[in-house]
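Researcher: Please predict.
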Amino acid sequence: MPAPHFSLPPTDRVRSPLTGWTRAHWEALADRQLDALLPYATPGLAQYRLPGRASWSGVVSDGLEGFARTFLLASFRIAGAGGGDDDPAVSPLIERYTQGLTTGTDRDSGEAWPELTDCSQQMVEAASIAIGLHETRPWIWDRLDTRVQERVVDWFSGFVGGRTWDNNWRLFQVVSEQFLASVGAPYSQSDIDGGLDRIEDWYVGDGWYTDGDGRNFDYYIGWAMHLYPLLWARMTGPEGDGGRGKVYRERLTQFLTTYPRFFGGDGAPVHQGRSLTYRFAATAPVWMGALADCTPLAPGLTRRLASGTARHFVERGVPDERGLLPLGWYDTFLPATQAYSGPASPYWASKGFLGLLLPADHPVWTERELPLPVEQSERADHCTALPAPGWLLHGTPHDGIVRLINHGSDHNALDGPATDDPHYAKLAYSTATAPESAAHAWARTIDNHLALIAPDGTPSRRLRIHPLTCEGRRASSRHHAQLPGSDEEFPIESTSVLHGPWELRVHRVQAPAGVTVREGGYAVADAVRPQAEQGPGWALTRTESGLTSALVALYGWDEEACVAREVEANAYGPHSATPYLRSPRHPGGASVHVTLVALTRDLVHPQALREAVDCAVDEDGQVHLTFPDGETVTV
């Protein structure tokens, strides 16, 4: 594990026995990122043109993104220090971003920001600037020359009556126009109300939204769907939110009740969904809960979760030796990004620094750290069913791994063509692994996937996921497989049952004669090639650090098991491997396939597991599983 690329304050193991981190660590991390930007600033400081792959919006938009997203970080740092009278790092930030606002809104400066047009990337960035201006109002907005204020208002006015994409983007318009309202500028109340009304259509209960129509569940629920409504409420004040703020706080309370279960003992968030390059932003809803005084979490747990995540990335070389956040997870890894991601996109990580708005004497900074749920017992695993997104969260305290069993999120529209993004379509994700997401690996789509393999080798895809059940330690879903050259759909019903550290998967498959049925386990990745072992009905692969992915056939599989290897396909390392099972020459019609899936830092003896779990399928197709402790489960 590489050492951090910058100096950190001494750890405090009395107040923070689990991470050692304090508020001073967060300030140091913020300052390192902000200082590192200066070599990439345009002369008038209106843009930061960072190195890396450009987005589809172009270099000027990317430069604005560099200003806006880092201004968000700077605003939390400035406001958290009360304007910086006693902090020498803060006054230069006020000067820098004041100059950038002045230059960026001057159409004759040569560094002018692109105008706000319908569905343009500028809308995203404007929201960050609006929030930053609101939070730093006494030190920046109120001190701006009147002509500059007018230019800023003129730029933001492109939102009024404008059209955004119909998802979390509706909230960018809400906060931006609320900022206009707060400074006495023209705005549209119907735009604000329309955006806030629209997210009501996406609220699915238990604190969960979907990000737009469909089943779009990922970290955007925390760092966008919960975050912006409550930032809007901070702008309006309690007398101006029409009662919406109370609703938003109640929903965030529900959401945070289970949110800590998404984080592993090493601080890593579950690696699922898009825009994972925002990294620290996964902690934003936790800080927001404390800031809005609606969190169900103890202050020590809030800081332990957030600091653990920040420390996780810092200890793995983020930010890099230049002080920059690369496009990727740890190092640069473009398959974990999207085409809209530019070199400054990772700086939405700034949302993870929201806690700096809480004063230094707030309990989240002063109380002793408390353990995460996955750290609270060494004797038993933890399972949490989340019916709204269709997920099971499965944590094992002895190795600190959390797994997300996916029977509900596919990131597809309700109708029309569907895709199988590897960050949504897999059967499972975890805090210790990432899906094989490079194009060459996606073509084979082996890891955590049940596929029908056509005679030409083409695998079927898991496109739209139809949730069936999600309760206790069990979840199930159905998807329809298609093979090349055919419009016929073949239903595949999959059920996951959790027992101890294991997941048992039961698949009911309809398939044409002659195809091969194949299932993969977790892909593990490392700097060096993972080890591989296989035997009759089982296969496993193990990293140098001892992380093991194993797959054991219990019913319906051929004795042949294999390990697939990839290079430069995984966000966790350049060398990756996945165990998988096969059942060739399907007879046609219905079949049942039962698999034991293990992801662990323990030693695994697959043959012993195969013998320890008894699996029987009766004439009605019911699967009866009997475990070594005597428990029997029927699927």
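Model: The first strand starts at residue 203 and ends at 205.
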